[in-house]
Amino acid sequence: MSTLTNLRQRYLSEPAFKMFKKVLPPLSDTEREAMEAGSVWWDGELFGGSPEWNTLLNYPKPQLTDEEQTFIDTKLETLLAMLDDYKIVQEDRDLPPEVWEYLRKEKFLSLIIGKEYGGMDFSALANSTIVTRIATRSLSAAVCVMVPNSLGPGELLSHYGTQEQKDYWLPRLSNGDDIPCFALTGPEAGSDAGGIPDQGVVCYGDYQGEEVLGIQLNWDKRYITLAPVSTVLGLAFKLQDPEGLLGDKADLGITCALIPTDHPGVEVGMRHDPLNMAFMNGPTRGNDVFIPMDWIIGGQDFAGRGWRMLVECLSAGRGISLPALGAAVGHMTARTTGAYAYVRKQFGMSIGNFEGVAQAMGRIGGFTYMLEASRTLTTTSLDQGEKPGIVTAIAKYHMTEMARTILNDSMDIHAGRAIQMGPKNYLGHHYFGMPVAITVEGANILTRNLMIFGQGATRCHPFVLSEMEAAANPDAEQGAKEFDALLGKHISFAIGNVSKSLLNAFTGSRFNKAPVSGETAEYYRHLSRMSRALAVAADFSMLSLGGELKRRELVSARLGDVLSHLYLASATLKRFEDEGRQQTDLPMVHYALQHCLHKCGVAFDEVMNNFPRKGIGRLLRTLLFPLGIRYQAPKDEVTIEIAQLLMTPGAHRDRLTKLCYVGEKDGDPIAIMERAFIALQDVKDIDRKLIKAIKAGDIPRKAILSEKLDLALASGLITEHEVEKMNHADALRRRAISVDDFASEEFTRLTLESGKAA
């Protein structure tokens, strides 16, 4: 060993190694398993400080297979036409029997199961697209479809089941003979799934008249979707082996088993009432329920391996199902709010022309573009075989939060039209249902404050996880050598990011590379700057706070916000390139990128203003933003341009809202609004003639429409055919802005029935 190496180890790496072990954030077993189970994808590029943008742009374009597209164009459209969301939620409190039968028959409940077992074996993109489109029609129906295709028996069996289990259960799940649910959450364990109190004890017991090795179970679970109608229950519990029947380990850990709900002692059937939505959700309990050992998913060898199984499969719920609900809200609100803002008039003009309304519409359009971009990029990762826990956490948190924001915007714009419940209201049930998506699969507060950066800082950083493993090496000498090899690379990495961050600050990111030219090129340069700033801030945070970083949730949350908005911005840029750089989409792209850069800047500012270690915040500001943070919120002209696009029919509007179900039946609520919108667009030229005559004083401004038309007809300004078109369009307009009303006895009946649990 050279003298220089000896000196480096003695005076640099050994002291650093000792300090690192002191400040090392402790990893619980569940955290370690979560990190080892997942994979690092584009999030690693963003965290590393120097994202390779061509890698992003070279990821496969999202594309459905012919079989998937045919299913969507035929069987999915048939399903959507069968759904009456008002009747489902307000009257039946369940899907109609014929809809349940159709879901079983056409394999909507087995989209992810392999063809060899009778399933559809669809891609993550197809699964997400189907759920998104259903959700624009009925959130309750969408949840019924998404749950069997998310974290649950079908997915767990496909990945971990024994061949015998697969051969028996998967065909039954595929053809709808069995309806699955999965029970994880309980009264004492929600977000802390690793702390579930439900217990199983390895013992001998009686099964079908024979004494067999098995498990005595006790559980109390709640919020379990499809539990009231399930025929097979996936159950997570902690398994104990006090007598050593399986080995010398008494505490085996979290285990997953599959139990028929008609098995003695299993309790299902009671229902919760999740914000008055109609999807089946309820508790399940069991007291001293004995099951054979081979009911463990994966068999006896998988006893105690349930947590890793769950973490590896959580990406379906976080990356497909719940983001699909968020994207659905975008497609639906963008299409309906644009139409309503044109149809509804006040002071003689469409309300979308008022700047206050246009501001909210700009947010709806910009967020909708970003929602769909994030949906497709996230499913791309899953279809590539990745298990990107950080990416899916970002998608789940931000897509459901963006959906909540634009739902509020849409409700504000629709005003009274949105708050009167009835068959004509297409917003109300989504408004009730979105908080459900925000709550499940890891509550959003937990996801933002603990998961995205808390796990990402360790998992995505190019060196920290390896350094932690070196520090935890029981062979201290070997660990020190491994650490020494990593330390130099880490120091070089940190110095490079600091120097480049300073260069970016003084040059406005001009020397950063962009993979494209045109109006979006500058965004790549600024995002590279933010990526480097995140890398620097992450290193300073982990070095100065160490294990305390876990408890400093506000620091973690804000740095997670930076990583998240870098991901959302990346998704937006990729979508723009994948779809052929559609110029009419540029306002939405500008809005999304300006919003993301602004949010990154806000997050950095809050970190630096509130950093727990004195002086570190000021140092970070000096290194990263010595000239200030100059990223502004989306510009007014962009929001107004988006508002006009939403109020104008054409390919751009259809592309932005392509998954929104409009319907063709006379009573379809969105179809009513759409027909009025198109009809009023068709009479724009006639309306301009009337406006011109009013300005000239030939027609009284405050006259009712029929009087205006009579005067215009008498003066030869318009023809009788044009009068008919105007009257037809106005009749559609009045129907579109109308709300439901009920006779007193009918209203009382509906109110009483909605308060009953089905």
From TrEMBL:
Keywords: FAD, Flavoprotein, Oxidoreductase. Coiled coil: none annotated. It catalyses: a medium-chain 2,3-saturated fatty acyl-CoA + oxidized [electron-transfer flavoprotein] + H(+) = a medium-chain (2E)-enoyl-CoA + reduced [electron-transfer flavoprotein]; a long-chain 2,3-saturated fatty acyl-CoA + oxidized [electron-transfer flavoprotein] + H(+) = a long-chain (2E)-enoyl-CoA + reduced [electron-transfer flavoprotein]. Residues 69-177 form the Acyl-CoA dehydrogenase/oxidase N-terminal domain. It comes from the Bacteria. InterPro entries: Acyl-CoA_dehydrogenase, Acyl-CoA_Oxase/DH_mid-dom, Acyl-CoA_Oxase/DH_mid-dom_sf, AcylCo_DH-like_C, AcylCo_DH/oxidase_C, AcylCoA_DH/ox_N, AcylCoA_DH/ox_N_sf, AcylCoA_DH/oxidase_NM_dom_sf. Its EC number is 1.3.8.7, 1.3.8.8. Its cofactor is FAD. Residues 304-450 form the Acyl-CoA dehydrogenase/oxidase C-terminal domain. Belongs to the acyl-CoA dehydrogenase family. This is Acyl-coenzyme A dehydrogenase.
